[in-house]
Amino acid sequence: MEPADNSSDLAEVRQLYDEAQRTWPDVELAFPTFAARLAAGGRGHAADLYLACACAEQSGPALAELDRIFLRCVRDAVSRIDRSHDFVSEVQQILRERLLVGPEAKIREYRGGGALTAWIRTAAVRTALNLRRRSKQETKRGTSLEPFEPLLDPEIALLRQRHMPEIDAALRRAIAALDPRERLLLHFYYVDGLTLAKIAALERVGVSTVFRRMNATTQAVLASIKSELTDKLQLSSDSLNSLLGHVRDDIDLSLSQVLGQPAT
To answer: How far is residue 47's CA from residue 159's CA, in Å, rounded to a whole number?
Structure first.
C-alpha cells in the first residue's frame, strides 16, 4: 500500500522513485516496496536504496548492476591492506556471498543513510582484516577451520574446537551428495571466483536464476550438515543451533577450502 500520510510526502517519495528508475532504467522495483524501505531509512541516497532493495528482491538486472559497478570499489579498498590478486579475489568472493546470497543477505541491511559504495567499502575492509587475521592463524590451507572473529560465548568456542573434525567431515559429505551441476556452480563461485553475472553468461540463464540456485544449494549444504550433526552430537537444541550459526557465518570460506582441494 502506498504511503498516504499526506500528499506532499507521497509526491516526494514518488519523485525519488522516478529518479531512481531513471538511474537504473533496466531495474524494476514495485513502488510500494521502495516506499516501505525508504520509510525505514534515509532519503539522501534513494537511488542506491532502490538498487539494494531490488537486489534483495532477487532482481536479475539489479544483481548484475551491483556486481558490475559497486563491487569494483572493493578492489581499491582491499588493495590498501594486501595488493595480491588472490587476496583481493577472495575478499570479493566472500563479500559477494555475504551481501547477496541467502535469506539473511546483508544487502537487506542497507538503509540508504550513506552511499552504497561507501557501505560496501567498509564491509570490504572489515572482511579483509578478518581474512588476514585468519590467514596468520592457519598453519596451512585445509587445516581445521577457525572462525573469523573471537566468539563471544566461550562455551560455543569450545564446542566448535572440539567438534571441528565432525563439522568438516559433514561439510565434505554434504558437498559430495550434491548433484554434479550444483557442485560445479559452487566451484565456479567459491573457487574460480566468478561473479553471478559471469556464471549466468556461461550457463545462458538469467542472473536471478543463478542467484536462486546458489541460495538453494547453499541452504541444502547447511541442512545436510545440521541433519548429520543432530544425529552425531549429543548437544542441547540451543547449543547445536548456536554452533550451526557460526558454521553458517564461515560457510563461504569453508566451501572455498573444501572445493579447492583435489578429490581423494
So the answer is: 44
